[in-house]
Structure formats: structure tokens, C-alpha cells
Amino acid sequence: MARYLLGFDVGSSSVKASLVNADNGKCVSSAFFPEKEAPIKAVKAGWAEQEPDSWWQYAKQALQKIMAEGGVKGDDIAAIGISYQMHGLVCVDKDLRPLRPAIIWCDSRAVPYGERAFNELGAEKCLSHLLNSPGNFTAAKLAWVKDNEPDIYNNIYKVMLPGDYMAMRLSGVPNTTVSGLSEGMFWDFKENQVAQFLLDYYGVPSSFIPDIVPTFCEQSVVCETAARELGLKAGTPITYRGGDQPNNALSLNVFEPGEIAATAGTSGVVYGVLGEVNYDPKSRVNTFAHVNHATDKTRLGVLLCINGTGILNAWMHRNVTFDMGYAEMNDLAAQAPIGSDGVCIMPFGNGAERVLQNKELGCSIHGLNFNKHARPHLVRAAQEGIVFSFCYGMEIMQQMGMDIKKIHAGKANMFLSPLFRDTLAGVSGATIELYETDGSVGAAKGAGIGAGIYADHNEAFATLEKLQVIEPKVVDRVAYADAYAHWKDTLNKNL
Hints:
The chain is α+β, with helices and mostly antiparallel strands. It contains 17 helices and 23 strands. Helix 11 runs antiparallel to helix 13 (375-399), helix 12 (326-333) packs across helix 13 and helix 13 packs parallel to helix 14. The longest helix has 25 residues, at 375-399. The protein starts with a strand and ends with a helix.
């Protein structure tokens, strides 16, 4: 009888579920819910909240669909894994019921709390222990609740990340992981324990933190109540949990130092694995415990996020090349030479950029000459600007000790553009490998590792399909280097 692995990916727009045949590694069914983007409540400007129970309901709908499509029964599922939107805050009472809507990753209300902690505790203390500024992460969001909603705060039993909440709904048992705690600024890497100094600063009791379990292990099991509601088997083990970016890296089989996972949707992320404890003194990139981090084997995920990535390309499509599809748009861009004949575009028109120390530069076009430049130059300069912003951040990662030789990415979004791929390979000097991958499938395979079905990650991802390899073109390296140097010089003049 075939064994199946179930993976959930709890996003802010939907919850996706996938079933993977544990024996051959193939995904047999996937579905997401809702089909239209899930609502985000913004009671005030800069706020973003979601009801935790909505994630549960979405997961239930997606699960019902894949079980029916795959012809799979609850008894057939060997283990469950969970991926989730990072940095959110869920507060529950003693009955494990949410006390308020979750404050999710894109909510900015807690920024002053993180900045105050960073200034008063000191940069050296925060960076050497947390590897980041407390910023707008989960701990700062909890401090906001303490100050602004005392009646809710006084009834808190445990605080959780979105993935912790999903696991708790499945099992009835609240717990968390070191990787999760690190993304919330609750983990002290120097002391290798919960960050008591930050909890003390905010006046938060350590009892709010759930029990800690390994990322890969039997963290808990499906309880009778959840089993009846979902059509699962009571006792099914939950054996893996990871935030969406670490999980994306896992899905691309990125586990070891120097390996890189990249995405380029609306925003862009470069996530690299570091084999030693280090941080950026200016906190322009974030550092968290990767899914395979351990006391005796340092594996940190260094995360670079560029807000203005695919959103710039989409803006160009709507306003400049509205008469053609994206493939035609890419062909048009290729008509301009490397460096876009001197046109530079800064892709920073989607809010403050952490890589620029939270400056909000806006998008800007430089070097435009009305007599010689046309649509191809603008479209190419937009894609080059996105690549150059990636490389600007990757230089910070290299300064932290990361040797970037290979970039793993899903063949989607900006990575569908040959020009984008060739430029990234050409400027970075790294080989790009494109894969068919998915976060919920990755979570399912992570569950297989945690359950011991797979000996290690290499066995789990042995069937990962490599679609394409892009090598740097030696003949164009000088042209790419010159174009990047010109772009970076223009950026520095505007910082």
C-alpha cells in the first residue's frame, strides 16, 4: 500500500495543500484555497491582520479537494509537514483560542518598538545575540499588544507563529521550533536559548513561549478532534515545520553553506546558507536559524529581500508594453544592449528597502536620452535594475563569509525571462539551476525527513526535477560588470 506525505503551506493569500507519494517522491494532488486572494484586514494604515481560524478553514477546504482527487484516505498519510508565512503573531488563551486576529508579516505597527529596543539595548548586544535588529518582528509585535491591548495581553497563555498555530490546531498541543523562534527575535544565538534579555526588556514572561521541538522529528500527532474534522487518522505524526523562505530553500534542496535559493515574484528574495554565526553590522539582511541548524552544526539562513522586483516588471508591462505579452516583452528587452545603453532604473518603488537601511528612495530612471532611447532600453533597464539590486544585496552576504557559486530557483515569475537569468548569472558569476518546485510539496518532503522515511534531504529530493541550467557567459562578463558598476555608482549618488 502506498504511503503519502501531506504538506500545508499557510500563506497570507491562500493555504495550499499537497499530497506526495512517499515511495516515488511524486506529487499526486495539490490545491489551494481560497481561489481568490484571502482578505487582509487593515483597520489603520500600516496594519495587516488575519483571523487564524481562516487558515484552518482554508486548509480544510484544500485538504478535502486533494484527498478526493488523489483517492487518498486518512489512513494512507504517514506524516504531515507545515510551511507558513513568517513573522506573524498569534496570541491564544488557556483554552488555546485566539485572543485577537493575527498580526501578520506585513504589519508595520511595531516598528517603533523594535527601533527603541535596538537603540536602548545597543546594536552590539542585539546583533551579536539575535543576529538582527529586533525590528518589526514577532517580539516587537507582542510588545505592541502589551502596551496597547492590556486586557488581551493579560489573558495570553502562549504566543505562536502562524505555523505553530496550524500545528496546534492539528494536535491540540502548542509547541515551536528554534528556527521559528529565531525569525520572531525570540532566540539568543550566543547563549543558545530563548532570548531572555529581550523578553526582560519588553517585560514579557518566558512562560508565553511554547515548548521547543526539533524542526525534523515527531513534534506532535493529530488529535481525535482534528482527525474527525479533517478526515485524517488520529495519531498521524506532524514531523516538520518551517517558515516560507527557509521552506522554499528546503524545497530547492538548499541545506549547506554557500547554497542559494532565490525567488522573484512581486518582491524578490535571495536566501543563502551560512556555516558560521555572523551578521551584517548594518542589519541590511536578516539572519535566522535554517531548518537544519543545530548547536553542533551551524546552518543559518541569510535573507535578502527586495520589495521592488516583479512589481516593477509588471508596472512596465501595464504602462510601457501593454500591447504585448510578457514573452514578447522579454524579446523586446533583448533588442537593447547589455547596460541598456546607459539607462539605469532603481527598482525601489514598493516601500522602504531594508537593504538600503530602510530608506524609501522610490523608483527612478537615470540616463534617459530622448534622442536615442526607446521602449527596449526601458524594459531591459528595469530587468537589469532588479538583477543589480539582487547583486547589491548578495555582496553583503559575501562580506558575511558566504561563497556564492550556485543559485537554485523555481522556474517561475522573473526567472521565466532569459534576459533576467542571463544577467543574474553574468553579474554574479554564479550558475543558476531552475527546478519544478512548490512550498507545500517541500513541506510534505520535509515531513518525510522528520518521520525517518527518508534518510536525509538528498534522498528526499532525489526526484527534484532540474529543468534548466544557466552558466555565466564568459564573453559578456566585462559588459555585465561595467553595467553593474554604472548602476551601483548611480545608486550611491542617490542614497
